[in-house]
Amino acid sequence: MHIKQAVYIISSPEFEKCPVADKPEYAFIGRSNVGKSSLINMLCNNDKLAKTSGSPGKTQLINHFEITSVSDLEADQNKKEVIYKWNLVDLPGYGFAKVSMRSRRRWEQMIENYLRKRENLTMVFVLIDARHSPQKIDLEFLENLKLWQIPFSLVFTKSDKENQRTVSKNVKDFLEAMRKTWQFLPQHFVTSAVKKTGKSKILDLIHETNVELQKESQKSRVKSQ
Ligand code: GDP
Question: Could you give the angle at which helices 136-148 and 101-117 cross, rounded to 10 degrees?
């Protein structure tokens, strides 16, 4: 699959102001500076889509993009191009050192509301910096997702910034740390926005999920006729 078009829709200060929930939605979140904007831009082939290195405080908004993606011809049995529409959501990052308690609370409330109430939310991609050993703040965020039963995948970012052995060790250690409280481990991707690695695997997962969702909605339409 590849992305044909990515259009910025709106930035919302709260869940209630988000656009109509009429398409599958994939949200991206992680610690500030984890490489979220760079990853989104890599996935969408557009260097200017999500703003990179936004300053803290100004970025506490839920940013919606409408994506048009196309199945790759060679992968499609019918050799027919199929178009999918879905939303990509850039969520404000956590872990800014210099934000006030008030703005942290506001962030927590906004994120919790969005994640728990957004009915078209299909999957969350949680970004983890591949240069570091497991960080408490990331593991704690995942515990919330467990509590709220939100499906998610992990995306390890900036893998080009460290040698491969260190990256593999950090990934392994992170998954090991999860194992202490998780029965099942999530799917994970190792990426670099500089080297453009991990892109097709993430897009494949989104595509397969969209195909499944479309099949399900067709089935339920037939049933209700
Ligand atoms: P955000 O705050 O999570 O949106 O992070 P950004 O995408 O703005 O990235 C933060 C910094 O890390 C910027 O200077 C990026 O150029 C850099 N960066 C992001 N992804 C990568 C990557 O895959 N490789 C390298 N070497 N640098 C990256």
Answer: 40
- From 29, 31, 34, 38, the mutation candidate for ligand 1 (largest count of ligand atoms within 8 A of CB) is 38
| 122 and 151 Cβ atoms separated by less than 8 Å | yes
User: Beta-carbon neighbour count of residue 36 at 10 Å?
Assistant: 26
Contact 67, 87 (CB under 8 A): yes
- For 205-214, write each residue's pLDDT tens digit: 999 999 999 9
Q: Distances in Å between the alpha carbon of 117 and those of 14, 27, 110, 122, 149? A: 11, 13, 10, 12, 12
Distance 35 CA to ligand 1 centre (A): 4
Instruction: Name beta bridge partners: 190.
Output: 156
pTM higher than 0.90, yes or no?
yes
